[in-house]
Amino acid sequence: MSATSAVRSARESPYGCIRVASIPAGHVYVRHLSHPEDDGTVVRLPDIAQPGGEGRWWPPAMLDADWISDHHETFDVFHVHFGFDAKAPAELREICGALDVAGVPLVVTVHDLRNPHHANADLHDEQLGVLLAHAAAVITLTPGAARVIATRWGRDAEVLPHPHIVDWATLSRPRPPRNGFVVGLHAKSLRANMDVARVARVLATTVAGLPGATLRIDVHHEVFDPGAYSYDPVVGNALRTLAATNDLVELHEHDYFSDDELWAYLQAIDVSVLPYRFGTHSGWLEACFDLGTAVVAPSCGFYAEQRPCVTYRNDETGLDARSLAGAVRSAYEQAGAPRATLDQRLRERRMVAAAHHALYSRVVR
Fold first, then answer.
1. Residue 103 has pLDDT above 80, yes or no
2. Which of 11, 230, 292, 342 could bridge across to 189 with cysteines, CB 3.0–4.6 Å?
3. pTM over 0.85
């Protein structure tokens, strides 16, 4: 018997299920990988709570070589989704080494080929390269992303769709009726991949030519707080000026939405414009699909492969204002947006849960 096989036999799961240390477990994507009827075939360890707020999982405490060495008997698979940007490449090599010593397979889901918070791609490329070199299996969300992974890192990735974001009750609820047409631009906290000010100016001009249309811009308070990491007076003041000088533009400054507030916001707008210069996939797009909100997405990344959306040209070479205006007009002229059904999302989630169980079974055995 090999050393790895001996380790596996010594800690056979006592519950007849596969125990997964997910990085993280509490993220909505990971929570919705479970079977909707909770069939018990996969059990995910709960996150180790971090100071700073209820449910906070970042930075992930389990993503640590010493923790793995001390706790490897409690899980059968180590599955990394998010949070590895908190670790230097050298630390990730130590983590992979600890998993090798413990005989625990590593699974990596590639959500982002490019970190949306990093202005430069080099660090994320190196971090992802370390993980993919050690992974027993790789998952991603779209065929386009799988092609990039195969070309760049020589790994075959299994393509599985993003599960639903919105809870079942809200997903089933009809959209509230209202008049007019609202184009939504949510600047959040101005992540590095966002081109908010230029996109906002194009949208303000575009809605002026669409009868009954208005532009709603949302941004977090911390953009205006000199003590905050996301403080950006240039973009913040540009948004305030745009709203102050244009009757068709509303600016909403607020803290992070709760889930219920976010669902209400997405159903209060007709189209959500994603202002990204670079990116890969989007949970925001999934929430819009759950709620029947149209999406105008950039040409960078693989948003159009992920869910139905109207695209415009925007990447690190620049924004095509004409294509953005045309995409918004197309969304305006459509009779409603594609929306997921409860039955569709239930079937999809069962499939995704079964696929993960099958993959975990392969890498464990």
1. yes
2. 230
3. yes
